[in-house]
Amino acid sequence: AFTLAAGIPRAFAQKKIVLGFSQIGAESEWRTANTESIKSAAKDAGIELKFADAQQKQENQIKAIRSFIAQKVDVIAFSPVVETGFETVLREAKAAKIPVILTDRAVNVKDQSLWVSFMGSDFTEEGRKAGRWLVEKMKAEKGPVNIVELQGTVGSAPAIDRKKGFEEIIKADPKFKIVRSQTGDFTRAKGKEVMEAFLKAEGKKINVLYAHNDDMAIGAIQAIEEAGLKPAKDIVIISIDAVKGAFEAMMQGKLNVSVECSPLLGPQLMQAVKDVVAGKPVPKRIVTEEGIFPMEVAAKEFPKRKY
Ligand code: GYE
Description:
By secondary structure, the chain is of the alpha/beta class.
C-alpha cells in the first residue's frame, strides 16, 4: 500500500489526494469532453488535480510526467499520445514509487509493472464495427468499392488499432480496396486538407471515406461539398467517436454512421486513483462499453447524448 512519509496510511490522513494528469491536447471534440469529464470528476471526488496539456507532443508529456514526479504527486495518470517511447519516464515514476494509470490510450512497453491499470476503449473492435457496417451496407454492390482512409495521429493506439480492426473485416471480400490512406492527426483542419488531396488524386472514383474520428470526417465533409459532391450520398462516410458534432452531421444527412467511443472516463479514473492510494487492488484493464449509431437513429438518440 502507498503510505505517507511518516508511515500513516493514506486513508487516515487529512491531506487531499494529489493526481497529476497529462492530457494529449485539445485536438478533437472527444478530447474536450474527456478533459471536462476528468476535471469535473476530480472536483466531485475531492481530488486535487494537477492538469497539463501536451499540445499533442510526446516531449511535453514526458516533461509533465517528470514534473509530477518532482512534485511527489500521489498518482500519475495520462493518455499517451503515441504507444512507444515512454519506457524511461515510466521507470522513473516506478523508482519514485508513484503509481501510474493509463487512460484512453495504451503504451507499448515490455514491463507491464510500469503501470497499474489501463482504462479505455477497445479500438480494434471499433475498427471492426466500422468494417462490419460497411460490409452490410455494400452487400449488394459488385465493386470495386474504393475506400479512402483518414488515419488518426501516427503511432497512436487508436490509429493503429482502428486501421487493423477495419482491415481485418473488409479483407474478407476483395471488392473492398483502400486506395488512399493518410493521417489527418484527428483534427478537422487536417481532415479537410487531406480529403482535398484525396479528391484531387482520385476524384469521383472514391466510394467510401473511413475516418478514424468524427472531427476528421466533419472536416472532410466540407472538402467533399466544396468539390461539388454530396457527402453520405456520393461518398459513404463512416467515422468513430459519436460526438455531438457527428450526430448533427447525421441529422443533416451528411454522415452515414459513427461508431461510439466514450470519453467519459473521469469518474472511473477517480475511483481507481482512490483505490490505488488505499492499497486496494484495481483491475489491470477496464474496457469501455460502446455502441454504433447509423444516421437513421441520430435524431432519436441525439437528446440522450452526453458528449
Ligand atoms: O477517437 C479522437 C481523439 O484517443 C480515443 O483521440 C481517443 C481519440 C479519439 O482525438 O477523437
